[in-house]
Amino acid sequence: MGGFSSINRPAINHGSSNFPEEEEAIVHASNRGEDRTRMRPRSSILEALSPRGSSPEDSDAYSPGNRMAPRIGPGPKNVEILQTRGYHALLMKAYKSGQAPTKLYDGAFLRDLVKAENARNGSLDLAVCSVGENPALRDWGIHDAMKKALLRPDEPHSCVLTDDHSHAAAMSMRVLGKPNPTTLSIVVLDSIKPDDLSQVKLHKTLLSEIGKSLDDAALKHLRIQVTILPMGVQVSNEGCNIFALVAAKKAAKSQSVQDLHEWGHDMVGHAAPGIHTQSIPLEPEMLLEPEFFKHAMKRNVIQNVVDAGETLGLAKEVPVNRKGQTLLERFEKFERATIVKTLDREIHTRYSRSYEEKRLDKLARLIEHKQALLAERKA
User: Fold this and answer.
1) Cβ(87)–Cβ(109) under 8 Å?
2) Residue 113: predicted pLDDT
3) What is the pLDDT, as a whole number, of residue 135?
4) Strand 223-230 and strand 274-276: pairing?
5) Cis peptide upstream of residue 179 (ω within 30 degrees of 0)
6) 10-residue block means of pLDDT along the chain (379 residues)?
7) Could you tell me which residues come within 8 angstroms of residue 41 by beta carbon, excluding any fewer than 6 positions away?
8) 3-state SS string over the chain?
9) Which residues pair with 81 in a beta bridge?
10) What pLDDT does 91 receive?
11) What letter does residue 339 receive in the DSSP assignment?
12) How far, rounded to the nearest angstrom, does the alpha carbon of residue 223 sit from its chain's CA centroid?
């Protein structure tokens, strides 16, 4: 999912929204190509990421004490570190200026971000699962993920599902059934609303590749329940890789996601082997922990989660982080006026930029991870 744009695409009915009509047209300018440089070699991105006329050291994004922008010490200029650092500087500049970012390369860094996340959390085993028609991007696909899940039944496996970098979502897999595993439950947590073109394309491709994988003799006996939850936390047409990475990490330890796997197992019951897609008659905010909605961009989504908690008899003020903040408190902290620039105009809007700070934080940690690896190689 790429930066805000005014690309002409077929009109889609996105349902009700709190956005003004003009804003809606910009924010939902789908098909949301996340990574416009996806066909470029990693090394060639350096020029695009380096701020013209200055180096990252000159940017106030790298001022001392900024935890989201650790400085790179003197020494050999490792290209991958420079790429990440330059990208971080571009995003920090937009964040501080109150403008939505216009150059997005999240897809180019996704696999490295996942590796850094696994390195920081020893119990995590996240992966990037690629689907789509571009063989260069399919180093680990649905078939691989299904085989891995079958090797360790009853153990959940989380990954970031991506469709040739055009869209990304969190995915959790779990094989269930005793004494012989017979059910594969797949839960997809998608950050955008239902019926978005990029979402429809990703899910259609996912189902197609699951079907192809059933030609494998080791998998053809499985009853596969695919549960898709469009969460609606994202209203920008960029950032899906970060939303997906955050959700995949949470899904790895989420009791509600495990409950969804159990539900999927119950739904397929003794059905014939193959793909099943029963729908859940409840909204995501009724099914998932509040933490999944921490980075929601619009207030109405947060309010829906709070209302759902009250309906379920939960406490209204539920802390969702180590600081003890509630969802509404976090939203109010990160909501701010933002300028969205398109090819021919500027849109003035307000939304939570929490996900942008999360992206900056993860990129900064990736820089630290790459520095540590470089130091190990030199030792």
Assistant:
1) yes
2) 96
3) 63
4) parallel
5) yes
6) 35 34 36 38 37 34 38 55 92 90 86 95 92 74 94 93 88 92 96 87 94 94 95 91 97 96 92 91 91 95 91 76 90 90 82 95 95 85
7) none
8) CCCCCCCCCCCCCCCCCCCCHHHHHHHCCCCCCCCCCCCCCHHHHHHHHCCCCCCHHHCHHHCCCCCCCCCCCCCCCCHHHHHHHHHHHHHHHHHHHCECCCCCCHHHHHHHHHHHHHHHCCCCCCEEEEECCCHHHCCCCHHHHHHHHHHCCCCCEEEEEEECCCCEEEEEEEEECCCCCCEEEEEEEECCCCCCHHHHHHHHHHHHHHHHHCCCCCCCCCEEEEEEEECCCCCCCCCHHHHHHHHHHHHCCCHHHHHHHHHHHHHHCCCCCEEECCCCCCCHHHHCCHHHHCCCCCHHHHHHHHHHHHHCCCCCCCCCCCCCCCHHHHHHHHEEEEEEECCCCEEEEEEECHHHHHHHHHHHHHHHHHHHHHHHHHC
9) none
10) 93
11) E
12) 27
Residue where the block lists tokens 């500049």: 93
Rounded to whole angstroms, how far apart are CA atoms 175 and 221?
A: 12
